[in-house]
């Protein structure tokens, strides 16, 4: 049988406060009106319990360890669009392990967490209808993953710091396809761009999203469909770098062809 001492709070909250520090189960209401009901150990929240933060209209229900959220738990918020804000694993008061999180803009993430950040493998369903499935690091898309954009385009390949970086494949809504290298979210390096409508293919060197040099091929047997193309106005920078990259590309291509 529990031996609990119950007393009225001296603060004008008109609530009961259980003062025993080593009780197995008790309810505490602090001067801010925040309320905790659950298990304690050595004067700290420890075990299963519920914490309500009245000012922020946020509550947590789950496991505690040494006064911090630790283990399985659910975080509820003031946003009534969803049943909960976060449901999953915690470590030292931070989301850590596997969990589901809902965001105010309607986005939803399910996957791995580390120190309150998306880290590892997970799926992000964005509020605009886009979806990403793949690897995360430090709350950013990093590693290998696939993105389904709301406009119908898809990208599958490598990411770094939330941007396309490395080798990857982009397919637009119209069926146009780019397969090659990316840097800082732009086509950069060797790559091939195929236009679905007329069969044109641009294969060669890309720099900062612009086709620099290479080969233009027509894959369709029929004549290309006439179309107007606006040539962008641009200024060549780092010309020596462009020349060096182009020379390197064609030398490697020639050596590769000679070995076949």
Straight-line N-to-C gap: 86 Å
Q: What is the succession of H and E elements? A: EEEEEEEEEEEEEEEEEEEH
Any idea of the CATH class of the domain at 128-222?
Mainly Beta
Q: From the coordinates shown, what is the CATH architecture of the domain at 128-222? A: Single Sheet
Count of helical regions: 1
Number of strands: 19
Helix/sheet category:
mainly beta
Global morphology: elongated
Spell out the CATH superfamily of the domain at 128-222: Histone H3 K4-specific methyltransferase SET7/9 N-terminal domain
* CATH fold type of the domain at 128-222: Histone H3 K4-specific methyltransferase SET7/9 N-terminal domain
Largest sheet: 17 strands, antiparallel
Helical amount:
under 10%
Strand residue percentage: over 45%
Uncertain stretches: 1-20, 228-234
Query: Kindly state the mean pLDDT as a whole number?
Result: 83
**What is the rounded Rg?**
29 Å
Pfam families: MORN (PF02493)
InterPro entries: MORN, MORN3
Subcellular location: Cytoplasmic vesicle, Secretory vesicle, Acrosome
Protein name: MORN repeat-containing protein 3
């Amino acid at each position: 049988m529990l031996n609990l001492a119950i007393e009225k709070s001296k603060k004008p909250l008109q609530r009961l406060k259980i003062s025993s520090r080593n009780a197995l189960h008790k309810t505490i209401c602090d001067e801010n009106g925040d309320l905790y009901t659950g298990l304690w150990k050595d004067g700290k929240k420890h075990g299963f319990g519920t914490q309500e933060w009245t000012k922020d209209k946020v509550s947590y229900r789950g496991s505690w360890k040494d006064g911090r959220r630790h283990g399985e738990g659910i975080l509820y918020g003031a946003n009534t669009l969803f049943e909960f804000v976060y449901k999953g694993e915690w470590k030292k008061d931070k989301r850590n392990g596997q969990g589901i999180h809902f965001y105010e803009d309607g986005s939803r993430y399910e996957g791995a967490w580390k120190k309150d950040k998306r880290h590892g493998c997970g799926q992000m369903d964005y509020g605009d209808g886009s979806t990403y499935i793949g690897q995360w690091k430090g709350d950013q898309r990093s590693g290998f993953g696939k993105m389904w954009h709301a406009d119908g385009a898809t990208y599958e390949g490598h990411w770094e710091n939330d941007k396309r970086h490395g080798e990857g494949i982009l397919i637009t809504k119209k069926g146009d396809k780019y397969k090659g290298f990316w840097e800082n979210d732009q086509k950069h390096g060797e790559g091939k761009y195929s236009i679905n409508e007329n069969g044109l293919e641009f294969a060669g060197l890309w720099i900062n999203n612009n086709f620099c040099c290479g080969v233009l091929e027509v894959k369709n047997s029929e004549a290309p469909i006439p179309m107007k193309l606006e040539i962008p106005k641009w200024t060549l920078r780092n010309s020596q770098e462009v020349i060096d990259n182009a020379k390197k590309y064609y030398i490697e291509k020639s050596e590769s062809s000679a070995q076949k």
